[in-house]
Amino acid sequence: MSNDNVLDTPKRRLCILPKAIDGHHDFDHRAILESWGLELLEDFAGEDNLQYVRLPEGWSFVAVDPDKHFKVIDEKDRERINAFLDDSCPPNSITRLCHRITIQFDHELMVEKNLYVANIYDSEGKLLYATNPIVGYEDESEDVNIRAAIKRACDWLKENYPDWRNPAAYWED
Hints:
- This protein is an alpha+beta fold.
- The chain has helices at residues 29-35, 107-113, 142-160; strands at residues 14-18, 21-22, 39-44, 47-54, 60-65, 69-73, 79-84, 94-97, 101-105, 115-116, 118-122, 127-130, 134-135.
- It has two domains: 2-97, no CATH class; 101-160, no CATH class.
- The strands form four sheets. It has a five-stranded mixed β-sheet with strand order 2-8-7-6-5, with no helix packed on it. Strands 1-4-3 form a three-stranded antiparallel β-sheet.
- Strand 5 and strand 6 form a beta hairpin.
């Protein structure tokens, strides 16, 4: 596919994305793409798993690793979509919708201070919440402490952003 993934258009608004969408099966991912203003067009060169997509005004298609990994950025410079293309096996190509709010476990704090903390960020990298640290002890499993920190973060999200698992939620906030 090389540089064929983005057609030479003035604003790089016509691109090719995999039809296969990775993510939570409780959501209609195609409906989410359309609600964001993406136009899902015809298949690409007879490939069942690839299709042309027109992006909304102000959005762009950016190569992270040319020919393999691309992302779609919205008009506010927020990453909305990750696309992974596999030329050798197009059925392995996949699109992932990004969430506005995410949990990230702080591995550095765990390694350096034996503290287990999960951080919640918005898509612009702003820290929204950090869980209270869990002190790791030798007789406790690292995995148990990581899960406990992430559970604390999930509990906070359920209370403050109940629809956080939905990739369509909270982008207009």
